[in-house]
From TrEMBL:
It comes from Escherichia fergusonii (strain ATCC 35469 / DSM 13698 / CCUG 18766 / IAM 14443 / JCM 21226 / LMG 7866 / NBRC 102419 / NCTC 12128 / CDC 0568-73). This is DUF2158 domain-containing protein. InterPro entries: DUF2158. Pfam families: DUF2158. The lineage of its organism: Bacteria, Pseudomonadati, Pseudomonadota, Gammaproteobacteria, Enterobacterales.
Length: 79
């Protein structure tokens, strides 16, 4: 069996899993107090980095994990 090089996605997944984070890169999240649907793009200094499109440009912001909740995929199916 051949040893294949590991991809950066696999490394990121393991790094996040070991850190005990609730969200994985590419998960959809929203701020608990309301706001746009965002995609998790990474973690930095204990903060969850997110990006979203506001109709004009891609925005990015870092949030504490406790400020976020998983996006409701059922709403996307209804739209």
């Amino acid at each position: 069996m051949q040893n294949l090089p590991s991809s950066s996605k696999v490394k990121k997944f393991h790094m996040i899993e070991e850190a005990g984070m609730r969200f994985l890169v590419s998960d959809e999240v929203i701020v608990k107090q309301g706001g746009p649907r965002m995609i998790v793009t990474g973690y930095s200094s204990g903060m969850v980095e997110c990006r979203w499109y506001d109709g004009f440009a891609v925005q990015r912001e870092a949030f504490h994990e406790s400020e976020l909740q998983a996006g409701d995929e059922r709403r996307l199916e209804e739209a």
